[in-house]
Amino acid sequence: MRGQSAIASGHHCCQGCEEGPAVLHTAAQQRLPQLSRVMLLIAWAHTQNLVVFQPSRLTATGPDVSALLLGHTSDTVLSLRSVSPSNTTGLIGSPSCGNGVTQWVLTTVQAGKNAVWVQLRLRKNLRLCGKNETDADCCPKPLCVLETLQVSACVGGTPRASLLIQAEIHARLVPANAGAGNKTIIPNQVYQPLGSCPCDLTFRACDIRCCCDKDCSVEEVKLFVSHCLPGPFGGQVPAAPGYQCSEQSSANSPDWFPFLCVNSPPENSPYLGLFYQGDTITSKPGPSFQSPVLSAPLPVRAYIQGSPILLLTDQYFTIPQRGLEQCVNNAPVPFLENFNVNCVTILRSCPAGLPLQTQPTNLSITLKDGQGGDVVVDVIDEVAIDMSLFISNTVATLDEGLVCENVTLALDYTFYWKGNGLTNVTLTRTVGTITFNTSVALTTRYSAVFLNGDLMSEPNSGNPGYQVGRPVIAGTLDTLGNKSGSVQRTSLNVWKPVSDGLCSTAESKPVLFGENSTSGCLLPVSRQDLTRCDLLRDAVTSLQAALITATYVAKSGNPDPLIMTDWANISFVTLNSSTTMDDTTSSCSGVPSHQHIHVLSLITGMVEGRAQRDIHSLLVSYTLSHWALDCGGGDSSPCMDPLETKLFPITSSVTFTDIPISTGPPKTRFQVNFTEYDCNRNDVCWPELAFPMTKYYTGEPYSQSLAKGLILIFFFITASILGTPWRQIRQAWA
């Protein structure tokens, strides 16, 4: 409607162009949204060298009002005056370029090349005047401002456009002494039976319907005098009760009233303590959208497992590590937690920054030892000779490739610790020279190992029982080392295929407690290999045996390497070498292609309501397969060429089985065959006939159940004495 008013009032802008804007607006209103109409209006006004207010009529209910002046506004001068309709015609006169005296301030802000924001602000205070107040800067009536304003856009003293503003602004219900203090003083209610005005909740402001609020003027109270809050909250203290001696009246009080009335001071009111004790309430800061300032990490005097290692500047000591399946260059190093990660980087040019380009002086830094001192990292340099461990996916050409020298290929840290601190840190930096043409996939290694003397720290898998998802701890008996008779930790592994899935490139992963898994890899076998079945079986056996080098498995998640009762022997199902193998020139039998690990676990107790699981036994068995070349089908090259290979699978699996727990001794033959007196199988339980008289019965107080039981016994004895058998005995004695 505003856009319609602006175009419809185009006669204020151009005396000879009344029809053009109106016709243009009518067509645009039917087809274009409001924004499109405004842009079309700007373009039309600019081409016609005109100016137009958008909108051309406004109704102001607040102290601020704004509109847009569109078109050729470079030479436009604005004027403001107060106008009133004619008494005879009721119309407002033509626009004028003269300024009048008003209580408004006119400002302009350039909003674009062909647009100007026109803003008007009221200079009058909208506060409602108090009673007998002489200040002129306030509103004597609730309807504070009622006038019509006209803003004219003039070019060379001639009005080109006009804006009419109808201002109807009411006064604000804010008293004269309103302030913006940040503290509120609440009167102490301890020594008053009731607050003078409990509904006065807003400091220095009138609360609606609170007729006792002293911040409300007489005019404001008249607005809601018929809807005042009732009761004590509204400040209406009830009259004294009729039993008070002070309420005695000679007209209607009985003669006995002075003897039975109550003398109670006014301070002893039932409303005492109804409101909180007065106190000073400090305003709280509001929410902020600014990002919080991150403080430096607090210095740690003593390291504990998992806490980050710090530099002398109280910053984190970082090493590239893997997180969320990608490498992070600045990852803090946790105390007593080993890791070994590989990071792959695609190089198309020689690296120039960290971590692929390092200097010994930059790596030889000082760390806090966690005991009030410091340790310096000792750097040892090594040169890599075999680059195949670090480089892959190279693109070769006949031209000479790019040579990158002293590239950092590996950073291996060794931390020596004692108690809650570090004693020494060594770093082995491996560098090498990389030659490539187009691009190369560089695999770098980063590791950290914590040693207590010469013993590597190993994390446990539970305390005391195993936790699901933690590695199964295995070990071998140390008979030659310094700790002879102890068990050296190792792990049980299964296949972890990577990239092409071949066994030559496959890795291994540890067996995780409580998680069944099956994995494998592919072994290339030629017809020539199938003619030497003994060598083939030995090769497959060696591959499977490399997964499990341990002879013991830890029963619990935190075994002691010096206590042999914490460990159980691993049982291996040995292959029968005397079995006759049905081998031919192109096939081999008895190949141990599948290795199976069967773990038996059981619940040994409860700790803080959690079941503790231990390993009872572990069995390793093998499944034998018959490998032969399939010469049928479309591809017969392996059968023709003795060196042509075919892929055969080698697999490994692990299965966990829970041993059920026996909850009690076995049942006797009587309990199995006769169930009449079994309370768990019958509704009537004769062995528990006297249960209500025992202390285990909680249906009612023990004294009541005992009394009722004795009464039943009394009735039983009485019935027995007065019954037929006793009567016959008495007759016989008589």
UniProtKB/TrEMBL annotation:
Looking up Pfam families in the UniProt record yields: DUF1619_N (PF25752), TCTN_DUF1619 (PF07773)
**Gene Ontology, cellular component aspect:** MKS complex
Annotated Tectonic-1-3 N-terminal domain residues: 178-279
**GO biological process annotation, one example:** smoothened signaling pathway
Span of the signal peptide: none
The organism sits in which domain of life?
Answer: Eukaryota
Q: Which InterPro entries match?
A: TCTN1-3, TCTN1-3_dom, TCTN1-3_N
Entry keyword annotation includes Mitochondrion: no
Annotated keywords: Cilium biogenesis/degradation, Glycoprotein, Membrane, Signal, Transmembrane, Transmembrane helix
Residue ranges of every copy of the Tectonic-1-3 domain listed in the record: 302-447, 462-623
Signal is among the record's keywords: yes
Which stretches are transmembrane? 706-726
Q: What quaternary arrangement does the UniProt entry report?
A: Part of the tectonic-like complex (also named B9 complex).
Q: What family is this?
A: Belongs to the tectonic family.
Put simply, this protein is called Tectonic family member 2
Q: Tell me what organism the protein belongs to.
A: Gasterosteus aculeatus aculeatus (three-spined stickleback)
Taxonomic lineage of the native organism: Eukaryota, Metazoa, Chordata, Craniata, Vertebrata
